[in-house]
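== Sequence and structure of one protein ==
=== Format: two labelled lines per protein ===
==== Data for this protein ====
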Amino acid sequence: MAKGYIYFKENKPGVEVQEPTLEDIKDRCYIDKTSGCWIWKTAILNEWDKLQRPQIKNMMVTRLAWELLHDKQFPKELQAGHLCEDINCLSRFCVNPEHITPVTQSENEWMKAIYSSDEEYDNYIKRAKKWGAKARTKNKMNKEWTLEERCMAIYNNETVKTPNPDFSTPCALMHGRLNPHGYAVMVIKKKGKKETIRLHRLMCFVNNKENYKSIKEDSRIVRHMCGNKNCIEPTHLKFGDSSSNAYDTYMSGTHSNTSLNPEDVRNILKDWVEFNKNWSRTNKYGKRTRYGILKAGLENCKYNITYSSFKHITTGERWGLIYKEFKEELKELENA
């Protein structure tokens, strides 16, 4: 057995461990009759978005297959180049040992040059879908995507369509890419600097066939008619102003001030005082961070309010008359 082999099958108690064979590997592949490529199923179906090479227990299947065919160890200092680069756009997932050759990094990069064209990129997407893979949303092939294309790709592939009884179309909810306020975001590069834009705002511009503008360039606010702030369904979004947006939050029950009365605020401040007394976590400088304790205090709060509202209540910027009742106690805690 060549050095570096690993066992293809799980080592179960009482079961004799068998050496891997090329047939074992071939059984785990889609066989492309046109090019003769062995397309590794796990990579193309489960790991396509991550662009990971076929692996078994942290060993490259390409190297393992080559070792099985040649009965010697794959050179550690070289990479596994694919001779099928120019005949199959899915060659990166090919583990046919006859298509693999040890090459240097520069030689391997040269062999990949075929993927730089838009035509080959589109062909790559088409062929991958043939094997049951989902379309990628990120550009890894030097193909320039516009903001609108990226937004629609995320909408089509990353959102969870959730029925909403008040609308004929379901909400398109994002469970990733969320900022601390719960809005779906996307990071772009603009003039060499990273910029975070809210996807629901971008989607509203796309739906109205307008070029995207930031809040500094266009003062219009995008309203969530469905009340779900992480929804990017275009039919649930509408341009408006701050007053119409506040009305939407009131109607959907998400506006923090609508659910509070003076006694609720007193309870919030009472709990906040007690929470402060018991909070002992500090940073590496031995100090209590304001943001950390506020976030923890909000999680401990019994009322459904936003971080902004909780912060303003505990600092007296809102409900100031009630805050005065607890002002002395809070000052003592700050000076402690």
Confidence is low (pLDDT under 50) at residues 1-12, 136-143. The chain has three domains: 22-130, 147-254, 259-335. Residues 22-130 form one domain. The longest strand covers residues 185-190.
